[in-house]
Amino acid sequence: MKHIAKFLFALLLFAPAQAFAKTYPIPADDPVATVSLPEKWEPEAYDGGVEATSPDGAVYVAIEMVRANDVGSTAEEGVKFFAKQGVEIDDKSLKTQDIKINGLAAFDMTMSGKDKDGPTEVGMTLVGTNSDSKFLMIYYWGSKDGQKANLADLQKISGSLQITK
95: Cβ–Cβ under 8 A, 6 or more apart, which residues? Predict the structure, then answer.
Protein backbone atom coordinates (compact mmCIF):
# COMPACT_ATOMS: atom_id res chain seq x y z
CA MET A 1 0.00 0.00 0.00
CA LYS A 2 1.29 3.38 -0.92
CA HIS A 3 0.22 5.47 2.06
CA ILE A 4 -0.77 4.89 5.64
CA ALA A 5 -4.11 6.62 5.07
CA LYS A 6 -5.03 4.13 2.37
CA PHE A 7 -3.76 1.36 4.60
CA LEU A 8 -5.83 2.52 7.57
CA PHE A 9 -8.88 2.97 5.36
CA ALA A 10 -8.50 -0.57 4.07
CA LEU A 11 -8.11 -1.77 7.64
CA LEU A 12 -11.34 -0.13 8.61
CA LEU A 13 -13.28 -1.58 5.73
CA PHE A 14 -12.31 -5.10 6.69
CA ALA A 15 -11.82 -4.74 10.45
CA PRO A 16 -14.02 -6.77 12.74
CA ALA A 17 -15.83 -4.69 15.36
CA GLN A 18 -15.01 -7.09 18.16
CA ALA A 19 -12.49 -6.25 20.86
CA PHE A 20 -9.53 -8.47 21.65
CA ALA A 21 -6.74 -8.71 24.20
CA LYS A 22 -6.89 -5.98 26.83
CA THR A 23 -9.07 -2.88 26.49
CA TYR A 24 -7.61 0.47 27.55
CA PRO A 25 -9.57 3.60 28.45
CA ILE A 26 -8.25 6.81 26.88
CA PRO A 27 -7.40 8.68 29.05
CA ALA A 28 -7.53 6.39 32.05
CA ASP A 29 -8.93 8.96 34.50
CA ASP A 30 -11.87 10.31 32.43
CA PRO A 31 -12.11 8.24 29.24
CA VAL A 32 -13.57 9.55 26.00
CA ALA A 33 -12.67 6.33 24.15
CA THR A 34 -11.42 2.78 24.49
CA VAL A 35 -9.11 0.68 22.34
CA SER A 36 -8.05 -2.95 22.57
CA LEU A 37 -4.45 -3.96 21.99
CA PRO A 38 -2.99 -7.45 21.70
CA GLU A 39 -1.12 -8.52 24.79
CA LYS A 40 1.71 -9.81 22.62
CA TRP A 41 2.33 -6.17 21.61
CA GLU A 42 3.09 -5.43 25.29
CA PRO A 43 0.95 -2.28 25.48
CA GLU A 44 1.78 0.33 28.08
CA ALA A 45 -0.62 2.95 29.38
CA TYR A 46 0.79 6.44 29.91
CA ASP A 47 -0.67 9.74 31.03
CA GLY A 48 -3.38 10.40 28.46
CA GLY A 49 -3.16 7.24 26.37
CA VAL A 50 -1.61 3.90 25.51
CA GLU A 51 1.21 2.74 23.22
CA ALA A 52 2.36 -0.59 21.84
CA THR A 53 4.89 -2.10 19.46
CA SER A 54 4.36 -5.20 17.37
CA PRO A 55 6.28 -8.27 18.57
CA ASP A 56 8.60 -8.06 15.54
CA GLY A 57 9.34 -4.39 16.33
CA ALA A 58 8.19 -3.32 12.86
CA VAL A 59 5.10 -1.26 13.85
CA TYR A 60 4.51 1.29 16.64
CA VAL A 61 1.10 2.71 17.55
CA ALA A 62 -0.04 5.12 20.24
CA ILE A 63 -3.46 6.57 20.91
CA GLU A 64 -3.99 9.49 23.27
CA MET A 65 -6.59 12.10 24.12
CA VAL A 66 -5.75 15.70 23.17
CA ARG A 67 -7.63 18.94 23.72
CA ALA A 68 -8.71 21.11 20.80
CA ASN A 69 -6.37 23.93 21.79
CA ASP A 70 -3.42 21.49 21.89
CA VAL A 71 -3.88 19.81 18.50
CA GLY A 72 -1.14 21.78 16.72
CA SER A 73 1.36 21.40 19.55
CA THR A 74 0.48 17.71 19.82
CA ALA A 75 1.33 17.19 16.15
CA GLU A 76 4.62 19.07 16.65
CA GLU A 77 5.41 16.93 19.69
CA GLY A 78 4.64 13.84 17.62
CA VAL A 79 7.16 14.86 14.97
CA LYS A 80 9.75 15.51 17.72
CA PHE A 81 9.00 12.10 19.26
CA PHE A 82 9.56 10.34 15.96
CA ALA A 83 12.84 12.25 15.50
CA LYS A 84 14.01 11.16 18.98
CA GLN A 85 13.29 7.57 17.94
CA GLY A 86 15.60 7.96 14.94
CA VAL A 87 12.86 8.40 12.36
CA GLU A 88 13.82 10.88 9.65
CA ILE A 89 10.67 12.35 8.12
CA ASP A 90 10.55 13.70 4.58
CA ASP A 91 8.53 16.92 5.10
CA LYS A 92 7.85 17.17 1.37
CA SER A 93 6.00 13.84 1.46
CA LEU A 94 3.22 15.13 3.75
CA LYS A 95 -0.23 14.10 2.56
CA THR A 96 -3.48 14.91 4.34
CA GLN A 97 -7.03 13.69 3.94
CA ASP A 98 -10.32 13.24 5.74
CA ILE A 99 -11.00 9.58 6.53
CA LYS A 100 -13.17 7.40 8.75
CA ILE A 101 -11.82 5.10 11.44
CA ASN A 102 -14.35 2.57 12.64
CA GLY A 103 -17.06 4.98 11.45
CA LEU A 104 -15.51 7.98 13.22
CA ALA A 105 -14.56 11.18 11.38
CA ALA A 106 -10.78 11.64 11.27
CA PHE A 107 -8.11 13.84 9.70
CA ASP A 108 -5.07 11.88 8.57
CA MET A 109 -1.51 13.13 8.03
CA THR A 110 0.99 10.72 6.46
CA MET A 111 4.65 11.11 5.64
CA SER A 112 7.43 8.95 4.25
CA GLY A 113 10.63 8.55 6.16
CA LYS A 114 13.35 6.19 7.19
CA ASP A 115 14.63 4.68 10.39
CA LYS A 116 17.54 2.41 11.30
CA ASP A 117 15.86 -0.46 9.41
CA GLY A 118 15.16 1.46 6.21
CA PRO A 119 12.11 3.07 4.60
CA THR A 120 9.15 3.66 6.90
CA GLU A 121 5.80 5.36 6.90
CA VAL A 122 4.71 7.77 9.61
CA GLY A 123 1.19 8.84 10.39
CA MET A 124 -0.73 11.02 12.80
CA THR A 125 -4.49 10.85 12.72
CA LEU A 126 -6.84 13.15 14.60
CA VAL A 127 -10.13 11.45 15.46
CA GLY A 128 -13.28 13.27 16.55
CA THR A 129 -15.07 12.33 19.77
CA ASN A 130 -18.42 13.35 21.21
CA SER A 131 -16.77 16.40 22.76
CA ASP A 132 -16.02 19.63 20.90
CA SER A 133 -12.79 20.06 22.85
CA LYS A 134 -11.42 16.49 23.10
CA PHE A 135 -9.95 14.46 20.27
CA LEU A 136 -7.93 11.30 19.89
CA MET A 137 -4.52 11.43 18.25
CA ILE A 138 -3.24 8.20 16.75
CA TYR A 139 0.50 8.02 16.11
CA TYR A 140 1.78 5.36 13.74
CA TRP A 141 5.18 4.35 12.47
CA GLY A 142 6.10 1.24 10.56
CA SER A 143 7.67 -0.35 7.54
CA LYS A 144 5.58 -1.60 4.62
CA ASP A 145 6.70 -5.16 5.34
CA GLY A 146 5.78 -4.64 9.01
CA GLN A 147 2.31 -3.47 7.99
CA LYS A 148 1.79 -6.61 5.94
CA ALA A 149 3.14 -8.93 8.64
CA ASN A 150 0.94 -7.35 11.33
CA LEU A 151 -2.15 -6.70 9.22
CA ALA A 152 -4.51 -8.91 11.26
CA ASP A 153 -3.56 -7.21 14.53
CA LEU A 154 -3.76 -3.73 13.00
CA GLN A 155 -7.26 -4.53 11.73
CA LYS A 156 -8.33 -5.62 15.19
CA ILE A 157 -6.83 -2.52 16.81
CA SER A 158 -8.59 -0.09 14.45
CA GLY A 159 -11.82 -2.09 14.68
CA SER A 160 -11.76 -1.91 18.48
CA LEU A 161 -11.61 1.90 18.75
CA GLN A 162 -14.82 3.10 20.41
CA ILE A 163 -15.97 6.50 21.66
CA THR A 164 -17.38 6.27 25.19
CA LYS A 165 -18.86 9.74 25.66
Answer: 3, 5, 109, 110, 111
